[in-house]
Design goal:
mainly alpha, 89% helix, elongated
């Protein structure tokens, strides 16, 4: 009986330790998503490229964060938020480029 209790207590403490570490990719996804929104507000071509780069990074980090959140049950909302921000900035940037190309044609 003591062996069973020991096994379950170790299993529970391992999960608690794993979830206490957090989900760094999810946090990085949100940071990159917010950075892409901020840099997207600067009216300069280089800033738009930086915005798209950070948006793609937010999507990649978000997908890694979602995968980790499925294992650890930590940071799913952050990972999804960063992923959605990244996708939104990519779509809006693409629409902006199409609009600008059409305006100069």
């Amino acid at each position: 009986m003591a062996v069973e209790v020991d096994f379950w207590s170790r299993l529970y403490s391992a999960r608690a330790d794993e979830s206490a570490r957090g989900n760094a990719p999810a946090t990085m996804s949100v940071v990159m998503g917010v950075a892409s929104v901020i840099t997207g507000q600067i009216p300069h071509f280089t800033a738009v490229l930086l915005s798209v780069f950070t948006a793609i990074s937010a999507v990649v980090w978000g997908l890694i964060g979602v995968r980790r959140a499925m294992k650890t049950r930590v940071g799913l909302a952050r990972a999804l938020s960063g992923t959605v921000l990244g996708v939104l900035v990519c779509v809006l940037s693409a629409i902006g480029v199409v609009y600008l190309v059409g305006a100069y044609s």
